[in-house]
Structures are given as C-alpha cells and as structure tokens.
Amino acid sequence: MARYVRIPGSIALITLANPPVNALSAAVRRGITETLSRAIADPEVKAVVLCGENGNFCGGADIKEFAGPMSGPGLVPMIDAIEAGEKPVVAAIEGVALGGGLELALGCHYRIAHCKARVGLPEVTLGLLPAAGGTQRLPRLIGLSAALDLITTGRHVSAQEALQLGIVDRLTEGDTLGVAVEFAQSIAGQPLGSRRLSTRTPACPADLDSFLQGALVQVRRRARGAMAPEACVRAVGAAATLPYSQGMQREQELMASLFRSAQARALQYCFFSQRLVGRWSTPSGARWDSAEPRPIRRAAVIGLGTMGRGIAVSLLQAGIAVVAVETDEQQLEAGRRAVTALLERRAQGRGSEGPLRFTTDLQQLRQVELVIEAVFEDLAVKKQVFRQLSAVCPADTLLCTNTSGLDVEQLAACTRSPELVVGTHFFGPAHVMKLLEVVYGPRSSPVAVATAMHLGKRLGKVSVAVGNCPGFVGNRMLKPYLEQAHFLLEEGAAPEQVDQALEEFGFAMGVFRVADLSGLDVGWRVRKEAGLTGPGVAPGESPRRRQGRRYSPLPDLLCEQGRLGQKTGRGWYLYEGPGAREARPDPWTHSFLQQYRQQHGLQPRAVPQQEVLERCLYALINEGFRVLEDGIATGPEDIDIIYVFGYGWPRHRGGPMFHAGAVGLATVLDRLEHYHHAHPDIPNLQPSALLRRLVASGNPPIQKWREVIRRVRSQL
Ligand SMILES: CC/C=C\C/C=C/C(=O)SCCNC(=O)CCNC(=O)[C@H](O)C(C)(C)COP(=O)(O)OP(=O)(O)OC[C@H]1O[C@@H](n2cnc3c(N)ncnc32)[C@H](O)[C@@H]1OP(=O)(O)O
C-alpha cells in the first residue's frame, strides 16, 4: 500500500495509498519500508519524495490496529531508516500530517506543505503519546516550549503556523508534489547532517526544571484525571534532559504505560463513536446514506435570548445568511448589540460571515429555507410561534425548535407541514458548545432529519439524531442523576462533598456547582409545570412524595428563599456577589439542610464517596438503558457522545454507557439492585430490562450491544 515510481530527474516518488487518510496500517508500513529500500538501492535515484494519495499526506497510525496484536514493521525503525539514509527524503504534505503521519514527516529531511494543510500530534486525544519519535524530534526542531504545547494539547496547526514554528520548510499554494519534486532535485547530493533532527539539541527555557514542573502542574489541572497529558510532559522532558537514544527509550516506556490502558480504550472508542453517530438512522427507516440534505443558504432565528444569539452567531460563521427576529424594538436592539459583540469577539482569524438582518417583522421570513425557533422554553409560547411561522414561511421551509425537552410532535402539529419540523437542541453557549441533539418526531421526514444533521456538521458541531420524548436523551438521563444528588443531601451529604466526588471522577463541575451556574429557577419552572411543586400540588400531599414516589423539595425550597445560584450570589454555594463565579461552601446551606432533616425526621449519616458516585452515575446509566430500550437513542455510542460533548462527562472515561461496560454490567446491576432494595420508593434505581438482558447475555462488548437491543425491542 505504498506505490513506487521513478520520475525524471533521478527522483523516486513514494505514495502512501490507504484512503481516505492513508493511515499507517501494517500494509502501508511494509510498503514504505520496501519502497524506501528500493530507492536506496537504486544508484540512479538521488532523492526521494514521499506523499499521500487522495489529497492527504497521512492521518497517522491506524487506530483500528491498536485493539489487536500489532504486526508488520514498526513505525520507529521505519522512520529511523528514512532519517539515517544517505539520500534526501522530502515530505510533500497535502491535507493532513497528523500523529504518526507528522512523525513520519519529521523523519524526512525536508517538509514542503500546501498552504491549506494541517499538521499536529493529536495522540494525547487518543490517550497516547507520539511514540514514533515525535516527543524527541519535535522539541529538537521547534524548541521545548512550542513542542510541549502541541503535544499536550494535540491541537492541529495550520500550514502558516507550521511554517512560523519551523515545522515545515516551505509552503506552496499550487502543486505541492511538483514543488517538492523540484525542491528534491535542487538539494540532491547536499550533506544531510543537521537535517537529521535526532542529531540536534533542543532549545530549552533557561530554568528547565521549574519549566517542566510548571508544565506538569498545568496539564494535571486541565487533564481532570487523564493520564496521557502528564506522560507527554515527561516524554518531552526526556528530550531536554537525555541523549536522543535514551529519550526514545523513555518515550517507549511511557507509551507502554498508556497503550493498553482503560483510558486509551475509552478515548479511542470516543473517536470512532463520534464518527459512527454521523451514520444515523431512525426507526421509520430514514438513513444518513439515503436521505439527501437540502442546501441551506438563508436561515432565520426567532428569539434573541442567550440561546438565539449563540445560534445566530453559529449560523453566520458557517456562511449562512441570517434574519434575526425579536418581538419588539427594545428586545431587538438588545439582541443586535449582543450578537454584534459576540461576532466582534470571535472575528479574529475567522472566515467571512453570512449577511445578517434584524427585524421584528415575521413577514421577512418569506425567503428563508430554514428557521430555528429559540424563544422562551414554554410549550404554549412555542406553539403560538409555530402557528405564525407556518402561516408566513413557504410550505417547504424547514422549521426547527431549539428546546431542551419539549414535545416536538406537538409543535409539528401546529404547522401545515409537520414532516418538516425537527428539534435542534443546542447547548449553551450555542456558538461554543459542540453538541447538537437533532430530535425527530414521528412525522419528521428523512430530508428534514438529514438537513438538520448536515446543518450541525456545517456549524462545526457533533450532531446526534435522537427520538422525541421528554428531555430527549441528555436531559432525560440527567433527571435521575440530579434526583439522586438531592436525595444524598437529605441523607446526610453536603453539596461540596457530592461535587468533589463527581469532580474527582472527572466532571469539570459537580452537579450543584452546575446548578448554581445555570440558575436553579430553570428546573423550578419545569417542576412547577409538571405539578411537582407550587400551586399544582394537591393539598395535604407529603412534601417528600410526588406521584407515588420519593421526591426531594430541596431545590424548590432554595428557590423560594431567592437562592437562584450565581446570578443571585447565593444558591447551593455562596458567592462574593451576584454574578461572581467562585463557589464557597455556605454555612447557611449546612444549617438549612440540618433543619430540613430534623423537620422530616431524617437521621443524617456519613455518605461514602463510593455511594455518591454509584447512586448518581448508575441512576443516570440505568436511564440510558431505558433510552435504548425505548429506541430514543439508536446505540450506546449516541448516548456517550451526547454526554461527552454536551454534559462534561470526562472523555477519558468514554461516556456513561462505555463506563458501565468498563465497570462491568454485572457490577452495575448488582449495585442498582442493592440501592433499589434500600430505596424501593425510587423507581429509577430499579434495574432496566435491557441491563438485565445484557448481563444475562454474558456482558458483551459495547460494540455488540445493538444486537441485544434489537432483540429486547422486538419483544416489547
Ligand atoms: C503504535 C503507535 C506508535 C506511534 C504513535 C502514533 C500514533 C498515532 O498516529 S495515533 C493516530 C493519530 N492521528 C489522529 O488522531 C488523526 C485521526 N483522524 C482525524 O483526526 C480525522 O479523521 C482527519 C482529520 C484525519 C480527517 O477528518 P475527516 O476528513 O473529517 O474524516 P473522518 O474523521 O470522518 O475520517 C474518515 C475515515 O478515516 C478514519 N480514520 C481517520 N484517521 C484514522 C486513523 N488514524 N486510523 C484509522 N482510521 C482513521 C475514520 O475513522 C473515518 O472512517 P469511518 O468513516 O469508517 O469512520
């Protein structure tokens, strides 16, 4: 899988041929090794050019191979042989040179890149480090500090930045291969000495020890328990402190500690799951490969609150013309100022935006192909908007609702073309967060789903197609998780203790800090509408029971006290003042909880950290199994991607369903049974039928769950 051609001017051209990204599979490594030997042995060949077919140099090692036994020539000796050879090798980089692909290019003596190419060492995002010499050669090429940044973040670097940093020697806007061949001819016969990066000394900061120490502290803080970033710092540190060969040895040792780790498996699962969710299907038979998305050039956003503003910015940045609509001039002006400010802040280094118009007149929507309604989260208000939209927009306009859990079908029923209505659940801030839940109702057409999914991709989001039920996937699963957190407070835990357990697990923020950030009134309103609190509650009903099951009124009581979270300076935690962000444990909350327990005759107990994690996470996971049973998500990967990209689930733990498999489904089942036995009035703790069936099927790997899910669904 590497082609060899002799071209005029004594040049051998080696082309990596493993589409789509020329990953370095065993066959490709064999191909490179053999063709390189051929070029070296041929006295007519004076220089070699290495390129990739299909407009991509190389996407790195073949990640699919990592799960099995590795065979074929090793990457390290292959790259060492290129570097050590007496004939110059020029890498002609188009598309991407990532991971092992960039390491291969670093083994070459020169690198010519197309101006649209991208390079990087993203191994850290897969739970690994660049162990084909990347941690040793890159610092020797661009210095320790810049190399550390690239290797610990895994970020992709544009060709322009790569040139500035010194990763590539020359850029071209034209024919990369032609330029590389001409260049190879011009340097043939010149000494290769310092072009061999392994022979160089890396440029290091003056106070190396404290620099490396600082780097360790910084990556540990960011990593939230992920191991690979720290290993990357240690490997790069070895480049600065050890001779090349010993540094390579250290790189291999550190890689060995990561390669078969649970974290690497989880991160690689996320990589493939992210791509799998793009191959969506719905129970009605609509599929990604048969439904054609409509082109969207002009869109409208209805409602310029926080979400609407972010959505408008997202659309504009994807080059889509936007009509932004508000109800009155005052709201419109506030929206205009906010959107303009967001655009200005994000303008640097970005491409051109689509045109933007502000209006209070719905008649201006006659030309748009798609509308995203982002008004207040109230079904009656949204229904009214959908009726109006249906009246003014052309019948073939796709109507989307940005809702975090309302019934998409009820909105579709208000329109002339219910098949063109879908939910687009953005996550705030909508121009930043990567997740989009695309919610299909029973009547949503394949083209509507395909268009919304495609739009998400255009906006740079990870789109997941999900079915219509209260809360869809993400918020539906969040409910039992939040509920457990409240019950744990009733039983004796403090908010900061619950948060600490979750943050040590890897969440960016614990459940109570998140609630304070988003505002406690959001859930309060939903519970009032559901008749769980407020005037809708039947007189005489126990405050700790609703609809035949255990209920915790704690968050309602906080709201009644005006403690709405950060915005009021007080919530579960105390803040310096309204809008301040630093959460401090609040003695008021502690004594409030104490009084509450006394009032309800609850004997507080010390709640172990393990129990906090098991009850919160397993209740959420159990609901995930129910989501799968109900066909709201197609497979566990959909749920995991939603949680990783939308809910701060630590990526190195793969997502909730992956985590369940990693812990062992039998263990999750056993613990749920245990907690359900202890709390029979909490139905969410009762293990789902699917979980039981999976355990009975012998705990199959997550990739096989879909078969069991199909069987369970067919029996329901
Ligand atoms: C023993 C190890 C020794 C040394 C260390 C070296 C380690 C490595 O090199 S690890 C790999 C590092 N590389 C990466 O992390 C890059 C991963 N790929 C990407 O980021 C993207 O795929 C891309 C930027 C290269 C292309 O993006 P895009 O054009 O959007 O396409 P897709 O992402 O949909 O990918 C298309 C197709 O290719 C598969 N694929 C991509 N990269 C790899 C890879 N390195 N190995 C195996 N397969 C890869 C991807 O899964 C898609 O396939 P499917 O459509 O079947 O899912």
TrEMBL record:
Subcellular localization: Peroxisome
Example GO BP: fatty acid beta-oxidation
Domain 3-hydroxyacyl-CoA dehydrogenase NAD binding: 299-468
GO cellular component: peroxisome
Gene Ontology MF term list: (3S)-3-hydroxyacyl-CoA dehydrogenase (NAD+) activity; delta(3)-delta(2)-enoyl-CoA isomerase activity; enoyl-CoA hydratase activity; NAD+ binding
Origin: domain of life: Eukaryota
Annotated coiled-coil segments of the chain: none
InterPro entries xrefs: 3-OHacyl-CoA_DH_CS, 3-OHacyl-CoA_DH_NAD-bd, 3HC_DH_C, 6-PGluconate_DH-like_C_sf, ClpP/crotonase-like_dom_sf, Enoyl-CoA_hyd/isom_CS, Enoyl-CoA_hydra/iso, NAD(P)-bd_dom_sf
Residue ranges of every copy of the 3-hydroxyacyl-CoA dehydrogenase C-terminal domain listed in the record: 471-575, 612-699
Region (Disordered) residue spans: 532-552
Family label: In the N-terminal section; belongs to the enoyl-CoA hydratase/isomerase family. In the C-terminal section; belongs to the 3-hydroxyacyl-CoA dehydrogenase family.
Protein name listed in UniProt: Peroxisomal bifunctional enzyme
Organism the protein comes from: Megalops atlanticus
